[in-house]
Structures are given as structure tokens and as C-alpha cells.
Amino acid sequence: MWNTPNLLTLLRILLIPVFVGIFYIPVSWAPFVCALVFSVAALTDWLDGYLARRWQQTSPFGAFLDPVADKLMVVVALVLLVQSDPRAALALPAAIIIGREIAVSALREWMAELGARTQVAVSKVAKFKTTVQMVAIILLIFSRDDTDSPLYGFGMGLLYIAAVLTLWSMLLYLRAAWPSLKSPDRPLDGEEKQ
Prior knowledge:
This protein is mainly alpha-helical. The protein contains 7 helices and no strands. The chain has helices at about 5-25, 30-55, 60-85, 90-115, 125-140, 150-180, 190-194.
């Protein structure tokens, strides 16, 4: 269980309080270091999956922990950014991305209970969305002290692209899961508990 890919995933989780702490330090270098910490976390997201496949060190623990670490880091970063710049222009794509993460996580959990989790495996659109989203967040963190700068505007543009890709990938997941969702043979949650 404690192989290199899983340790990298745990590192990503441990970087969250570091990221939050640096975000609130009232010094000029904080945005740069905060963006750097987030960049390291984003890099471990790619590296742990690559090493797990390359070294054949995939595990149930890693399969559970990796998406949790990803979502925690992204959600925390978006919440902090919206708190720092509480305009609807930033809150809207952040809410779409966070809402999608909750919906898709619930969908995957439900499909896993049906033994059909592979029907909602990560798509290429979702992987591209993750890349765009990470770059957007890094730019927004780095330039958060100057929300009128071109760099911040570019980060906002990328975040909107990520939000559109987020909705698209969610629709792809829902389409793949739809036969199971509409099946009359599946008991409802209340029926399972009775």
C-alpha cells in the first residue's frame, strides 16, 4: 500500500494545509510560493498515475485516494480564490466545477455499487479538462493580487473553458451511465434500506 505512487498522492493531501497557510500570509511573495505549491501538487497528480502504471503498482487504496486528493486540492483552491475575489465572474465557474465533482463522485459511487464503475471511467475530455483547470488555477493564484492584470484575465478565460469542459465530461459520464440509471430493475435507495 505504501508504494511511491500512493506516497505521492498522500503528499498532495499534505500540501493542502501548507497551501492554505501560505495563501493567507500577507507578504508579496505569497502568491508565487502558493502557485508553486499548487503546481507541485498538480505535478504529483500526473506523476503518481504515470508511475503506478509504469511500475505496475496500482492498488485499491491508490484508486480510492487519488481522486480524493485531486478533488480536495482543486476545491480548496477554488474556495480560497472566490474568497479572495468574491465576484460572480469567478464564483460561477468555480461553482460549476465543484458541483460537477460532487455529482460525478456520487455517480461513480453508485455505479460501483452496481458493479458497473468502468462505464464511468475517466475520459479524454476529463483529462484535458483537468489540465486546463490546473493551469487556470495556477495563473489565478499567482496573479490574485492584481485582478485587472492580463495574466489574471487569461486565467479566468481558462477557468471558463475548464467549466465548459467540466459540463461536457459530466454529460459524457451521465450518457454512459444512463442505461443503469433508468433501469426499472434497480432498487431505489429507500427500497434497499427497507
